[in-house]
Specification:
This protein is an all-alpha fold. The chain has a single domain, classed as Orthogonal Bundle (Hypothetical protein af1432). Helix content is about 65%, strand content about 0%. The longest helix has about 30 residues, at about 230-260. The chain is flat and about 65 Å long. The chain starts with about 30 loop residues before the first helix and ends with a helix. This is Deoxyguanosinetriphosphate triphosphohydrolase-like protein. One of its GO terms (biological process) is dGTP catabolic process. It holds the Pfam family HD. One of its GO terms (molecular function) is dGTPase activity. Belongs to the dGTPase family. Type 2 subfamily.
């Protein structure tokens, strides 16, 4: 069993090996660089606002389903578990997980698509790239430097998410980054289905037609009898998470044993190790295709998406037409560029604030 006191593995990113920060700072007396990153992210304004930002379903549909913040916390929980089991840097993994969704605008991917459309020909909009702007320029927390001055390892992890070019895909990320990417996928596959069931957009019978869900449910039914539908649903969600995490750990441990990586840098030249098996990957793709067609494209979801897009689009147009609507800080970061200043400002607000601002003259 891996215990909290177990030392980091050779292939982990050790705190002493960090590439440091853009703006040099003296070491802290009792916190590692990655602990400081985690704390800076948690105390940032952008992190707090995730509590009122759409994950998949807007607040108009109820209060059970995940927000960007609750999704982020679930990803961090899964990622920490995998990090500890693989003896990699848990503090770095937690910082990466807590940071991974910060660049999202209000109204989820609907808001992102709207801003990307408005900024066509002007650099576009991507939530992963926006997170870097927040970390390096937009967040105002310290006297000595703009942004949060996170370690280069956290910035690199976020930059990989933003870089979709072929060159960016050739070099493997450090294992801590791999773990967060996997945790994100594991979390939203299970939890988006759970939220859709709660909202009545799906029923259990439909999900039982999918291999991944059905096998997880059968495992629960073999373990327990006379479960209510709600008990079965919740137990199946737990099984989906545990099964995928266990599968990934088995694959990762086998690959790490074969590769015998001497340090974190060696992981960059090696194939990806933190991934589920081919068998699970095939079943996950089936579930994700189903969720896309039956949940993300559900008429009720699309209706709210249309309404949200109209509100954010109107706010953007107002800000570009009258730059004084944009707070001075954003105009100072992008002087003379009303489009980017408007996008920086609006991407940082919450769903609730956006709707209130839209309804004002």
């Amino acid at each position: 069993m891996i215990l909290e006191s177990d030392p980091l593995a050779p292939y982990a990113m050790h705190p002493d090996d960090t590439a440091g920060r853009v703006h040099p700072e003296p070491p802290h007396r009792y916190r590692s660089p990655f602990q400081r990153d985690r704390d800076r992210i948690v105390h940032s304004s952008a992190f707090r606002r995730l509590s009122h930002k759409t994950q998949v379903f807007t607040g108009e549909l109820g209060d059970y389903h995940r927000t960007r913040l609750t999704h982020t916390m679930e990803v961090a929980s899964l990622a920490r578990t995998m990090a500890r089991a693989l003896r990699v840097n848990e503090d770095l993994v937690e910082a990466l997980a807590l940071a991974h969704d910060i660049g999202h605008p209000p109204f989820g991917h609907a808001g992102e698509d709207l801003l990307d459309e408005r900024l066509a020909g002007h650099g576009g909009f991507n939530h992963n790239a926006q997170a870097l702007r927040i970390f390096e320029l937009l967040e105002v927390r310290y006297v000595e430097f703009p942004g949060l001055n996170l370690t280069r390892e956290v910035l690199e992890g976020q930059r990989r998410r933003a870089d979709k070019t072929p060159d960016g895909a050739l070099r493997s990320p450090i294992i801590e980054v791999q773990i967060v990417d996997a945790a994100d996928s594991i979390a939203y596959d299970a939890h988006d289905a759970d939220d859709a069931l709660e909202l009545g957009l799906l029923d259990l019978g439909e999900l039982r037609e999918l291999e991944l869900w059905d096998e997880a449910a059968r495992r629960i039914e073999n373990r327990y009898t006379n479960l209510t539908p709600l008990e079965l649903r919740r137990a199946t969600i737990h099984e989906l998470l545990d099964w995928q995490v266990s599968d990934l750990l088995g694959v990762a441990q086998a690959r790490l044993g074969e590769l015998d990586l001497p340090n974190a840098e060696a992981a960059r030249a090696a194939p990806i190790v933190a991934t589920v098996s081919d068998e699970i990957a095939d079943k996950k793709r089936e579930l994700e295709e189903f969720l896309f067609n039956r949940v993300y494209r559900h008429p009720l979801v699309l209706q709210h998406r249309t309404e949200a897009t109209a509100a954010l689009g109107e706010l953007y147009d107002r800000c570009v037409a009258d730059p004084e609507r944009v707070p001075p800080h954003y105009r100072q970061v992008s002087p003379g560029d009303a489009r980017r200043a408007a996008a920086d400002y609006l991407s940082g607000i919450t769903d609730r604030y956006a709707l209130e601002a839209y309804r004002k003259p």
